[in-house]
Amino acid sequence: MEEARTPPHCDIIPVIIVGAGPVGLLLALRLAQSNIRSIVLEQEATLGAAPRAIGYYGPVHHVFNEAGIYDQVSREGMPSGGYVWRTLPSEDEKGTKTLGSVLCRNVMSCPDSDGQYKICTYSIQLAQCRLAEIMLEEVTKTGLSEVLWDHRVTDLSQDENGVTITAISGQGEPKSFRGLYLAGCDGGKSIIRKLLGIRLAGHSWPERFIATDVLRTAPVVEDPPVHFTVDPKYWGVVTPLEHVKAGVKGLWRYSMAVPAYEEAEDGSRVFLTDEQVLEPKYVNSLLLRQLDGPRPSDHVVVRKSLYKMHQLLASTMYRGRCFLAGDAAHINNPIGGLGLCTGLLDADALHQTLEIAFSLGQGDHDQRHIPTTNGANGILSSGHGCRRTINLQNLFLRYSSERRRVFQNIIHPYSSANKTRLHSADPEDIAREDWYFQALRRGDPKELESINAPLYNGWRTDMWSLVGTSLKDA
Ligand SMILES: Cc1cc2nc3c(=O)[nH]c(=O)nc-3n(C[C@H](O)[C@H](O)[C@H](O)COP(=O)(O)OP(=O)(O)OC[C@H]3O[C@@H](n4cnc5c(N)ncnc54)[C@H](O)[C@@H]3O)c2cc1C
Questions:
Q1: Which residues of 126-153 are buried (b: 16+ CB within 10 A; e: fewer)?
Q2: Which of 8, 104, 133, 384 has its CA 20 to 30 A from that of 52?
Q3: Which atom of ligand 1 lies closest to the CA of 255?
Q4: Collapsing DSSP states into helix, strand and coil, what is residue 470?
Q5: Which residues have a Cβ under 8 Å from the Cβ of 201 and sit 6 or more positions away?
Q6: Which of 258, 257, 260 is nearest to 270 (CA)?
Q7: CATH code for the domain of 358
Q8: Distance from the CA of 295 to the center of ligand 1, in angstroms?
Protein backbone atom coordinates (compact mmCIF):
# COMPACT_ATOMS: atom_id res chain seq x y z
CA MET A 1 0.00 0.00 0.00
CA GLU A 2 1.21 3.48 -0.87
CA GLU A 3 2.35 5.50 2.13
CA ALA A 4 -0.33 7.90 3.41
CA ARG A 5 0.03 11.42 2.12
CA THR A 6 1.22 13.52 5.03
CA PRO A 7 2.86 16.88 4.60
CA PRO A 8 6.52 17.34 5.54
CA HIS A 9 5.67 19.14 8.82
CA CYS A 10 4.01 16.30 10.68
CA ASP A 11 1.88 18.58 12.86
CA ILE A 12 0.06 19.92 9.80
CA ILE A 13 -3.04 17.92 8.97
CA PRO A 14 -3.53 17.48 5.22
CA VAL A 15 -7.28 18.13 5.32
CA ILE A 16 -9.41 19.44 8.18
CA ILE A 17 -13.09 18.66 7.70
CA VAL A 18 -15.65 20.56 9.77
CA GLY A 19 -18.88 18.61 10.28
CA ALA A 20 -19.52 14.86 10.63
CA GLY A 21 -22.71 14.94 8.60
CA PRO A 22 -22.91 12.58 5.62
CA VAL A 23 -21.08 15.06 3.35
CA GLY A 24 -18.10 15.46 5.70
CA LEU A 25 -17.94 11.72 6.36
CA LEU A 26 -18.05 10.79 2.68
CA LEU A 27 -15.26 13.28 1.99
CA ALA A 28 -13.16 11.79 4.82
CA LEU A 29 -13.78 8.28 3.48
CA ARG A 30 -12.89 9.11 -0.13
CA LEU A 31 -9.77 11.04 0.94
CA ALA A 32 -8.67 8.09 3.10
CA GLN A 33 -9.21 5.77 0.15
CA SER A 34 -6.78 8.03 -1.76
CA ASN A 35 -4.35 7.81 1.18
CA ILE A 36 -4.98 11.40 2.23
CA ARG A 37 -5.24 11.88 5.98
CA SER A 38 -7.88 14.08 7.57
CA ILE A 39 -9.51 14.96 10.84
CA VAL A 40 -13.21 15.65 11.17
CA LEU A 41 -14.31 18.14 13.85
CA GLU A 42 -17.90 17.72 14.98
CA GLN A 43 -19.65 19.94 17.51
CA GLU A 44 -22.04 17.22 18.68
CA ALA A 45 -21.09 14.22 20.82
CA THR A 46 -22.59 11.69 18.37
CA LEU A 47 -24.00 11.46 14.85
CA GLY A 48 -27.19 13.45 14.24
CA ALA A 49 -30.44 11.44 14.43
CA ALA A 50 -32.99 14.02 13.23
CA PRO A 51 -35.35 12.81 10.48
CA ARG A 52 -33.84 14.25 7.31
CA ALA A 53 -32.83 12.67 3.98
CA ILE A 54 -34.25 9.35 2.84
CA GLY A 55 -33.85 8.96 -0.93
CA TYR A 56 -30.62 8.48 -2.88
CA TYR A 57 -30.46 7.94 -6.60
CA GLY A 58 -28.82 8.70 -9.90
CA PRO A 59 -25.03 9.13 -10.01
CA VAL A 60 -24.89 9.04 -6.19
CA HIS A 61 -25.10 5.22 -6.52
CA HIS A 62 -21.84 5.24 -8.48
CA VAL A 63 -20.21 7.38 -5.79
CA PHE A 64 -21.41 4.92 -3.11
CA ASN A 65 -20.00 2.12 -5.23
CA GLU A 66 -16.61 3.78 -5.60
CA ALA A 67 -16.59 4.39 -1.84
CA GLY A 68 -17.30 0.66 -1.27
CA ILE A 69 -20.64 1.19 0.51
CA TYR A 70 -23.17 0.65 -2.29
CA ASP A 71 -23.83 -3.01 -1.47
CA GLN A 72 -24.57 -2.30 2.17
CA VAL A 73 -26.64 0.82 1.51
CA SER A 74 -28.71 -0.89 -1.17
CA ARG A 75 -29.16 -4.03 0.95
CA GLU A 76 -30.36 -2.12 4.02
CA GLY A 77 -32.47 0.43 2.16
CA MET A 78 -35.86 -0.14 0.58
CA PRO A 79 -35.65 0.11 -3.20
CA SER A 80 -38.19 2.22 -5.03
CA GLY A 81 -38.45 2.04 -8.82
CA GLY A 82 -40.45 5.26 -8.96
CA TYR A 83 -43.13 7.26 -7.20
CA VAL A 84 -46.74 8.19 -7.39
CA TRP A 85 -48.65 11.43 -6.84
CA ARG A 86 -51.93 11.00 -4.96
CA THR A 87 -54.73 13.05 -3.48
CA LEU A 88 -55.19 12.97 0.30
CA PRO A 89 -56.65 9.65 1.53
CA SER A 90 -60.42 9.31 1.35
CA GLU A 91 -62.56 8.28 4.31
CA ASP A 92 -65.45 5.78 4.47
CA GLU A 93 -68.43 5.98 6.83
CA LYS A 94 -66.54 4.06 9.56
CA GLY A 95 -63.65 6.54 9.40
CA THR A 96 -61.30 4.06 7.68
CA LYS A 97 -59.08 5.81 5.15
CA THR A 98 -57.85 4.43 1.85
CA LEU A 99 -54.88 5.81 -0.06
CA GLY A 100 -55.84 8.77 -2.22
CA SER A 101 -56.47 8.37 -5.94
CA VAL A 102 -53.46 8.27 -8.21
CA LEU A 103 -52.92 11.53 -10.10
CA CYS A 104 -49.79 10.42 -11.91
CA ARG A 105 -47.18 7.70 -11.74
CA ASN A 106 -43.47 7.79 -12.55
CA VAL A 107 -42.01 4.34 -13.04
CA MET A 108 -38.27 4.82 -13.42
CA SER A 109 -37.29 1.13 -13.46
CA CYS A 110 -38.28 -2.42 -12.58
CA PRO A 111 -36.18 -5.06 -10.84
CA ASP A 112 -34.35 -7.69 -12.91
CA SER A 113 -35.41 -11.35 -12.79
CA ASP A 114 -33.30 -11.79 -9.62
CA GLY A 115 -35.38 -9.11 -7.92
CA GLN A 116 -32.49 -6.59 -7.93
CA TYR A 117 -32.60 -3.14 -9.48
CA LYS A 118 -29.76 -2.00 -11.70
CA ILE A 119 -27.48 0.54 -10.07
CA CYS A 120 -28.40 4.17 -10.78
CA THR A 121 -31.89 3.33 -12.14
CA TYR A 122 -33.88 3.51 -8.91
CA SER A 123 -34.03 5.22 -5.54
CA ILE A 124 -32.67 3.73 -2.30
CA GLN A 125 -34.81 4.69 0.70
CA LEU A 126 -32.66 4.75 3.83
CA ALA A 127 -32.64 7.17 6.77
CA GLN A 128 -29.80 9.71 6.58
CA CYS A 129 -28.72 8.83 10.14
CA ARG A 130 -28.18 5.18 9.11
CA LEU A 131 -26.30 6.25 5.98
CA ALA A 132 -24.01 8.39 8.16
CA GLU A 133 -23.43 5.43 10.52
CA ILE A 134 -22.37 3.23 7.61
CA MET A 135 -19.98 5.93 6.41
CA LEU A 136 -18.55 6.44 9.89
CA GLU A 137 -17.87 2.70 10.27
CA GLU A 138 -15.98 2.74 6.95
CA VAL A 139 -14.04 5.92 7.80
CA THR A 140 -12.96 4.37 11.12
CA LYS A 141 -11.74 1.21 9.38
CA THR A 142 -9.35 3.21 7.16
CA GLY A 143 -7.31 4.45 10.14
CA LEU A 144 -6.57 7.57 8.09
CA SER A 145 -9.22 9.85 9.51
CA GLU A 146 -10.23 10.63 13.06
CA VAL A 147 -13.52 12.17 14.12
CA LEU A 148 -13.13 14.54 17.08
CA TRP A 149 -16.58 14.70 18.68
CA ASP A 150 -17.62 17.60 20.89
CA HIS A 151 -15.38 20.03 19.01
CA ARG A 152 -17.18 23.19 17.93
CA VAL A 153 -15.20 25.25 15.44
CA THR A 154 -15.32 28.95 16.29
CA ASP A 155 -12.53 30.65 14.38
CA LEU A 156 -10.40 30.36 11.29
CA SER A 157 -7.50 32.11 9.61
CA GLN A 158 -5.49 31.20 6.54
CA ASP A 159 -2.24 32.18 4.88
CA GLU A 160 -0.44 30.97 1.79
CA ASN A 161 0.84 27.83 3.54
CA GLY A 162 -2.22 26.60 5.38
CA VAL A 163 -5.31 27.11 7.49
CA THR A 164 -5.54 27.44 11.29
CA ILE A 165 -8.79 26.85 13.09
CA THR A 166 -9.89 27.06 16.71
CA ALA A 167 -12.36 24.60 18.18
CA ILE A 168 -13.89 24.56 21.65
CA SER A 169 -13.99 21.08 23.12
CA GLY A 170 -16.77 19.71 25.32
CA GLN A 171 -14.77 20.79 28.40
CA GLY A 172 -14.79 24.38 27.13
CA GLU A 173 -11.12 24.23 26.24
CA PRO A 174 -10.00 26.08 23.06
CA LYS A 175 -7.74 24.03 20.76
CA SER A 176 -5.94 24.99 17.56
CA PHE A 177 -5.50 22.82 14.51
CA ARG A 178 -3.37 23.57 11.47
CA GLY A 179 -4.11 22.03 8.11
CA LEU A 180 -3.15 22.41 4.49
CA TYR A 181 -6.78 22.55 3.39
CA LEU A 182 -10.12 22.96 5.11
CA ALA A 183 -13.53 21.64 4.02
CA GLY A 184 -16.56 23.28 5.58
CA CYS A 185 -19.18 20.52 5.59
CA ASP A 186 -20.94 22.06 8.56
CA GLY A 187 -24.49 22.31 7.26
CA GLY A 188 -26.89 25.13 6.47
CA LYS A 189 -25.85 27.36 9.36
CA SER A 190 -22.16 26.90 8.46
CA ILE A 191 -19.77 28.84 10.67
CA ILE A 192 -17.04 28.24 8.08
CA ARG A 193 -19.09 30.01 5.41
CA LYS A 194 -19.62 32.93 7.77
CA LEU A 195 -15.96 33.11 8.84
CA LEU A 196 -14.93 33.17 5.18
CA GLY A 197 -17.34 36.07 4.59
CA ILE A 198 -19.28 34.13 1.94
CA ARG A 199 -22.90 35.15 1.43
CA LEU A 200 -25.93 33.00 0.71
CA ALA A 201 -28.38 34.36 -1.84
CA GLY A 202 -31.87 33.16 -2.68
CA HIS A 203 -35.23 32.99 -0.95
CA SER A 204 -37.17 31.19 1.78
CA TRP A 205 -40.56 29.50 1.36
CA PRO A 206 -43.52 30.64 3.48
CA GLU A 207 -44.55 27.20 4.74
CA ARG A 208 -42.74 25.12 7.32
CA PHE A 209 -42.23 21.40 6.87
CA ILE A 210 -42.45 18.74 9.53
CA ALA A 211 -40.70 15.38 9.15
CA THR A 212 -41.95 12.51 11.31
CA ASP A 213 -40.63 8.97 11.57
CA VAL A 214 -43.64 6.83 12.29
CA LEU A 215 -43.97 3.19 13.32
CA ARG A 216 -47.21 1.87 11.86
CA THR A 217 -49.00 -1.06 10.28
CA ALA A 218 -49.83 -0.16 6.71
CA PRO A 219 -52.85 -2.11 5.39
CA VAL A 220 -51.32 -2.07 1.89
CA VAL A 221 -47.85 -1.39 0.51
CA GLU A 222 -48.15 -0.21 -3.06
CA ASP A 223 -45.46 -0.60 -5.70
CA PRO A 224 -43.74 1.85 -5.87
CA PRO A 225 -44.09 2.48 -2.13
CA VAL A 226 -43.23 6.20 -2.22
CA HIS A 227 -45.94 8.76 -2.82
CA PHE A 228 -46.39 12.52 -2.83
CA THR A 229 -49.66 13.93 -1.54
CA VAL A 230 -50.91 16.75 -3.74
CA ASP A 231 -53.03 19.33 -1.94
CA PRO A 232 -53.06 23.13 -1.84
CA LYS A 233 -52.59 23.08 1.94
CA TYR A 234 -51.81 19.61 3.31
CA TRP A 235 -49.25 18.35 0.81
CA GLY A 236 -46.54 15.92 1.81
CA VAL A 237 -44.33 12.93 1.09
CA VAL A 238 -44.79 9.36 2.35
CA THR A 239 -41.99 6.84 2.12
CA PRO A 240 -40.86 3.67 3.88
CA LEU A 241 -37.60 3.85 5.83
CA GLU A 242 -36.97 0.10 5.73
CA HIS A 243 -38.28 -3.02 4.00
CA VAL A 244 -41.97 -2.72 4.93
CA LYS A 245 -44.74 -5.26 4.40
CA ALA A 246 -48.52 -4.86 4.42
CA GLY A 247 -50.06 -5.81 7.77
CA VAL A 248 -46.70 -5.76 9.59
CA LYS A 249 -45.42 -2.88 11.72
CA GLY A 250 -42.71 -0.95 9.95
CA LEU A 251 -40.93 2.41 9.98
CA TRP A 252 -42.24 5.08 7.62
CA ARG A 253 -41.45 8.73 7.04
CA TYR A 254 -44.36 11.15 6.82
CA SER A 255 -43.12 14.61 5.82
CA MET A 256 -45.84 17.21 5.73
CA ALA A 257 -46.33 20.85 4.94
CA VAL A 258 -47.29 23.01 7.87
CA PRO A 259 -49.66 25.58 6.38
CA ALA A 260 -48.82 29.24 6.95
CA TYR A 261 -51.98 29.40 9.10
CA GLU A 262 -54.93 27.26 10.22
CA GLU A 263 -58.56 28.34 10.24
CA ALA A 264 -60.43 28.55 13.53
CA GLU A 265 -64.11 27.51 13.74
CA ASP A 266 -65.18 31.16 13.36
CA GLY A 267 -63.15 31.38 10.15
CA SER A 268 -60.38 33.52 11.65
CA ARG A 269 -56.74 32.74 10.84
CA VAL A 270 -54.61 31.10 13.53
CA PHE A 271 -50.83 31.36 13.20
CA LEU A 272 -49.03 28.60 15.08
CA THR A 273 -45.62 29.03 16.70
CA ASP A 274 -42.98 26.31 16.18
CA GLU A 275 -43.71 25.03 19.70
CA GLN A 276 -47.44 24.78 18.94
CA VAL A 277 -46.75 22.94 15.67
CA LEU A 278 -44.57 20.40 17.50
CA GLU A 279 -47.25 19.63 20.08
CA PRO A 280 -48.30 15.96 19.71
CA LYS A 281 -51.94 16.95 19.17
CA TYR A 282 -51.17 19.14 16.16
CA VAL A 283 -48.64 16.67 14.69
CA ASN A 284 -51.29 13.95 15.00
CA SER A 285 -53.88 16.11 13.28
CA LEU A 286 -51.53 16.45 10.30
CA LEU A 287 -50.69 12.75 10.33
CA LEU A 288 -54.30 11.62 10.48
CA ARG A 289 -54.96 13.47 7.22
CA GLN A 290 -52.19 11.46 5.51
CA LEU A 291 -52.45 7.99 7.10
CA ASP A 292 -54.51 5.33 5.40
CA GLY A 293 -56.00 2.47 7.44
CA PRO A 294 -58.60 1.97 10.15
CA ARG A 295 -59.25 4.31 13.05
CA PRO A 296 -58.02 4.48 15.71
CA SER A 297 -54.70 4.39 13.89
CA ASP A 298 -51.90 2.35 15.55
CA HIS A 299 -49.15 4.81 14.59
CA VAL A 300 -46.45 5.92 17.00
CA VAL A 301 -44.29 8.97 16.26
CA VAL A 302 -40.69 7.94 16.91
CA ARG A 303 -39.00 11.21 15.90
CA LYS A 304 -40.13 14.55 14.58
CA SER A 305 -38.41 17.72 13.43
CA LEU A 306 -39.67 21.01 12.09
CA TYR A 307 -37.86 22.79 9.26
CA LYS A 308 -37.96 26.01 7.34
CA MET A 309 -37.48 25.61 3.60
CA HIS A 310 -35.12 27.67 1.46
CA GLN A 311 -33.55 27.93 -1.98
CA LEU A 312 -30.12 29.39 -1.19
CA LEU A 313 -26.71 29.28 -2.83
CA ALA A 314 -23.32 30.51 -1.57
CA SER A 315 -21.66 33.13 -3.75
CA THR A 316 -18.57 30.89 -3.94
CA MET A 317 -17.63 27.43 -2.68
CA TYR A 318 -13.95 28.21 -2.06
CA ARG A 319 -11.66 30.89 -0.67
CA GLY A 320 -7.89 30.36 -0.70
CA ARG A 321 -7.37 26.94 0.88
CA CYS A 322 -10.92 26.57 2.23
CA PHE A 323 -13.89 24.89 0.55
CA LEU A 324 -17.59 24.49 1.19
CA ALA A 325 -19.61 21.37 0.38
CA GLY A 326 -23.17 20.19 0.99
CA ASP A 327 -25.71 22.30 2.88
CA ALA A 328 -22.92 24.68 3.91
CA ALA A 329 -22.92 25.78 0.26
CA HIS A 330 -26.51 25.33 -0.91
CA ILE A 331 -29.93 24.57 0.48
CA ASN A 332 -33.04 23.53 -1.40
CA ASN A 333 -36.48 22.37 -0.31
CA PRO A 334 -36.52 18.60 0.32
CA ILE A 335 -39.17 17.56 -2.22
CA GLY A 336 -37.62 15.11 -4.65
CA GLY A 337 -34.62 14.35 -2.44
CA LEU A 338 -32.05 16.49 -4.21
CA GLY A 339 -30.26 18.16 -1.27
CA LEU A 340 -28.06 15.52 0.26
CA CYS A 341 -27.54 13.79 -3.08
CA THR A 342 -26.08 17.08 -4.38
CA GLY A 343 -23.96 17.44 -1.23
CA LEU A 344 -22.59 13.91 -1.65
CA LEU A 345 -21.70 14.76 -5.24
CA ASP A 346 -19.93 17.92 -3.94
CA ALA A 347 -17.93 15.67 -1.60
CA ASP A 348 -17.06 13.49 -4.59
CA ALA A 349 -15.93 16.52 -6.65
CA LEU A 350 -13.97 17.98 -3.71
CA HIS A 351 -12.29 14.63 -3.11
CA GLN A 352 -11.13 14.64 -6.73
CA THR A 353 -10.00 18.28 -6.44
CA LEU A 354 -7.90 17.59 -3.36
CA GLU A 355 -6.64 14.35 -4.84
CA ILE A 356 -5.37 16.33 -7.82
CA ALA A 357 -3.83 18.98 -5.54
CA PHE A 358 -2.03 16.34 -3.41
CA SER A 359 -0.91 14.46 -6.49
CA LEU A 360 1.09 17.50 -7.46
CA GLY A 361 3.21 17.25 -4.31
CA GLN A 362 4.12 20.02 -1.91
CA GLY A 363 5.61 23.10 -3.40
CA ASP A 364 4.57 26.47 -4.57
CA HIS A 365 0.89 26.73 -3.67
CA ASP A 366 -0.24 28.39 -6.85
CA GLN A 367 1.69 26.80 -9.65
CA ARG A 368 2.08 23.03 -9.76
CA HIS A 369 3.18 20.69 -12.49
CA ILE A 370 0.62 18.14 -13.49
CA PRO A 371 1.43 15.03 -15.46
CA THR A 372 -1.18 14.57 -18.17
CA THR A 373 -1.62 10.84 -17.65
CA ASN A 374 -4.14 9.66 -15.12
CA GLY A 375 -3.15 6.58 -13.09
CA ALA A 376 -5.52 3.60 -13.18
CA ASN A 377 -6.68 4.20 -9.61
CA GLY A 378 -7.32 7.86 -10.28
CA ILE A 379 -4.11 9.04 -8.63
CA LEU A 380 -1.72 10.79 -10.96
CA SER A 381 1.28 8.64 -11.63
CA SER A 382 3.83 11.39 -11.07
CA GLY A 383 6.95 11.33 -13.13
CA HIS A 384 5.20 9.71 -16.11
CA GLY A 385 3.73 11.39 -19.11
CA CYS A 386 4.38 14.94 -20.21
CA ARG A 387 4.05 17.60 -17.56
CA ARG A 388 2.35 20.95 -17.75
CA THR A 389 1.65 23.70 -15.29
CA ILE A 390 -1.60 24.03 -13.48
CA ASN A 391 -2.73 26.94 -11.37
CA LEU A 392 -4.23 25.48 -8.20
CA GLN A 393 -6.39 28.50 -7.51
CA ASN A 394 -7.95 27.98 -10.94
CA LEU A 395 -8.55 24.31 -10.11
CA PHE A 396 -10.28 25.33 -6.88
CA LEU A 397 -12.27 28.01 -8.63
CA ARG A 398 -13.38 25.37 -11.12
CA TYR A 399 -14.63 23.13 -8.30
CA SER A 400 -16.68 26.05 -7.01
CA SER A 401 -18.05 27.18 -10.33
CA GLU A 402 -18.96 23.67 -11.54
CA ARG A 403 -20.82 22.78 -8.35
CA ARG A 404 -22.56 26.17 -8.21
CA ARG A 405 -23.60 25.72 -11.84
CA VAL A 406 -25.15 22.35 -10.95
CA PHE A 407 -27.16 23.94 -8.17
CA GLN A 408 -28.22 27.02 -10.13
CA ASN A 409 -29.13 25.26 -13.38
CA ILE A 410 -30.37 21.88 -12.17
CA ILE A 411 -31.09 21.52 -8.47
CA HIS A 412 -32.72 24.88 -7.79
CA PRO A 413 -35.21 24.73 -10.70
CA TYR A 414 -35.93 20.99 -10.34
CA SER A 415 -36.51 21.12 -6.59
CA SER A 416 -38.64 24.27 -6.88
CA ALA A 417 -40.82 22.59 -9.52
CA ASN A 418 -41.05 19.41 -7.42
CA LYS A 419 -42.44 21.44 -4.54
CA THR A 420 -44.84 23.76 -6.36
CA ARG A 421 -46.23 20.78 -8.30
CA LEU A 422 -47.61 19.50 -4.98
CA HIS A 423 -49.64 22.54 -4.03
CA SER A 424 -49.93 25.17 -6.75
CA ALA A 425 -53.54 24.37 -7.76
CA ASP A 426 -56.40 21.96 -7.30
CA PRO A 427 -55.01 18.37 -7.48
CA GLU A 428 -57.21 17.42 -10.46
CA ASP A 429 -56.08 20.53 -12.36
CA ILE A 430 -52.43 19.77 -11.62
CA ALA A 431 -52.96 16.16 -12.75
CA ARG A 432 -54.42 17.36 -16.05
CA GLU A 433 -52.33 20.43 -16.77
CA ASP A 434 -48.84 19.98 -15.32
CA TRP A 435 -46.29 19.62 -18.16
CA TYR A 436 -44.34 16.89 -16.36
CA PHE A 437 -47.43 14.79 -15.67
CA GLN A 438 -48.40 15.15 -19.31
CA ALA A 439 -44.95 13.94 -20.37
CA LEU A 440 -45.13 11.00 -17.95
CA ARG A 441 -48.51 10.03 -19.37
CA ARG A 442 -47.22 10.25 -22.96
CA GLY A 443 -44.49 7.87 -21.82
CA ASP A 444 -42.18 8.61 -24.74
CA PRO A 445 -38.81 7.24 -23.51
CA LYS A 446 -36.82 9.80 -25.55
CA GLU A 447 -38.80 12.74 -24.18
CA LEU A 448 -38.47 11.46 -20.59
CA GLU A 449 -34.78 10.83 -21.06
CA SER A 450 -34.26 14.38 -22.27
CA ILE A 451 -36.18 15.76 -19.25
CA ASN A 452 -34.01 13.75 -16.84
CA ALA A 453 -30.77 14.19 -18.79
CA PRO A 454 -29.44 17.13 -16.74
CA LEU A 455 -29.75 15.09 -13.54
CA TYR A 456 -28.23 11.95 -14.94
CA ASN A 457 -25.53 13.54 -17.10
CA GLY A 458 -24.70 16.82 -15.38
CA TRP A 459 -25.22 16.25 -11.66
CA ARG A 460 -21.82 14.70 -10.97
CA THR A 461 -18.63 16.65 -11.70
CA ASP A 462 -15.61 14.85 -13.09
CA MET A 463 -12.75 17.08 -11.94
CA TRP A 464 -10.16 14.74 -13.43
CA SER A 465 -11.64 15.17 -16.90
CA LEU A 466 -11.76 18.91 -16.43
CA VAL A 467 -8.07 18.93 -15.52
CA GLY A 468 -7.31 16.84 -18.55
CA THR A 469 -9.17 19.15 -20.87
CA SER A 470 -10.33 22.65 -20.25
CA LEU A 471 -8.03 23.49 -17.34
CA LYS A 472 -5.14 23.24 -19.76
CA ASP A 473 -3.17 26.49 -19.67
CA ALA A 474 -5.67 27.88 -17.14
C1 LIG B 1 -37.14 16.71 6.06
C2 LIG B 1 -35.97 16.63 5.16
C3 LIG B 1 -35.91 15.63 4.20
C4 LIG B 1 -34.85 15.54 3.34
N5 LIG B 1 -34.83 14.56 2.40
C6 LIG B 1 -33.80 14.45 1.54
C7 LIG B 1 -33.71 13.34 0.63
O8 LIG B 1 -34.57 12.46 0.59
N9 LIG B 1 -32.62 13.27 -0.19
C10 LIG B 1 -31.65 14.21 -0.17
O11 LIG B 1 -30.72 14.12 -0.98
N12 LIG B 1 -31.68 15.25 0.72
C13 LIG B 1 -32.70 15.38 1.58
N14 LIG B 1 -32.71 16.38 2.53
C15 LIG B 1 -31.56 17.28 2.67
C16 LIG B 1 -30.46 16.70 3.57
O17 LIG B 1 -30.97 16.35 4.83
C18 LIG B 1 -29.32 17.69 3.73
O19 LIG B 1 -28.94 18.12 2.43
C20 LIG B 1 -28.11 17.03 4.44
O21 LIG B 1 -28.33 16.89 5.81
C22 LIG B 1 -26.85 17.87 4.25
O23 LIG B 1 -25.77 17.14 4.79
P24 LIG B 1 -24.46 17.90 5.26
O25 LIG B 1 -23.52 16.83 5.69
O26 LIG B 1 -24.07 18.91 4.25
O27 LIG B 1 -24.95 18.77 6.52
P28 LIG B 1 -25.53 18.28 7.92
O29 LIG B 1 -26.20 16.97 7.79
O30 LIG B 1 -26.32 19.43 8.44
O31 LIG B 1 -24.24 18.06 8.80
C32 LIG B 1 -23.46 19.17 9.24
C33 LIG B 1 -22.68 18.75 10.48
O34 LIG B 1 -21.82 19.81 10.86
C35 LIG B 1 -21.84 19.96 12.27
N36 LIG B 1 -21.46 21.34 12.61
C37 LIG B 1 -22.16 22.47 12.38
N38 LIG B 1 -21.49 23.54 12.84
C39 LIG B 1 -20.34 23.08 13.38
C40 LIG B 1 -19.21 23.72 14.03
N41 LIG B 1 -19.16 25.03 14.22
N42 LIG B 1 -18.21 22.93 14.45
C43 LIG B 1 -18.24 21.57 14.27
N44 LIG B 1 -19.27 20.92 13.69
C45 LIG B 1 -20.30 21.67 13.23
C46 LIG B 1 -23.30 19.64 12.62
O47 LIG B 1 -23.44 19.30 13.99
C48 LIG B 1 -23.58 18.49 11.68
O49 LIG B 1 -23.26 17.24 12.25
C50 LIG B 1 -33.78 16.48 3.42
C51 LIG B 1 -33.81 17.48 4.40
C52 LIG B 1 -34.88 17.55 5.26
C53 LIG B 1 -34.90 18.63 6.32
A1: bbbbbbbbbbbebbeebebbebeeebbb
A2: 104
A3: 1
A4: coil
A5: 312, 313, 315
A6: 260
A7: 3.50.50.60
A8: 35
Q: Are residues 317 and 450 in the same domain?
A: yes
Judgement on whether residues 411 and 443 belong to the same structural domain of the protein: yes
Residue 367: pLDDT band with limits 50, 70, 90: very low
Task: Confirm whether 71 is domain-assigned.
Answer: no
How many CB atoms sit inside 10 A of residue 264's CB? 9
- Domain hosting 403: range is 13-49+128-201+310-468
Q: Based on the domain organization, do 239 and 387 belong to the same domain? A: no
pLDDT the model gives residue 473: 45
How long, in residues, is the chain?
A: 474
Residues with a CB atom less than 6 Å from ligand 1: 18-24, 41-44, 48, 52-55, 128, 152-153, 185-187, 191, 211, 255, 307, 326-327, 334, 337-341, 343
With CA atoms as reference, report the closest residue to 411 among 325, 334, 317, 309. Answer: 334
In a domain? residue 3: no
- 235-260 residue pLDDT tens: 999 999 988 999 999 999 999 999 98
Pairing of strands 236-240, 227-229: antiparallel
Q: Which atom of ligand 1 is nearest to the CA of 186?
A: 34
Task: Judge whether 81 and 109 are in contact, CB under 8 Å.
Answer: yes
Distance CA(163)–CA(423), nearest Å, equals: 46
442 in the same domain as 330: yes
DSSP secondary structure letter of residue 293: B
pTM of the model as a whole: 0.91
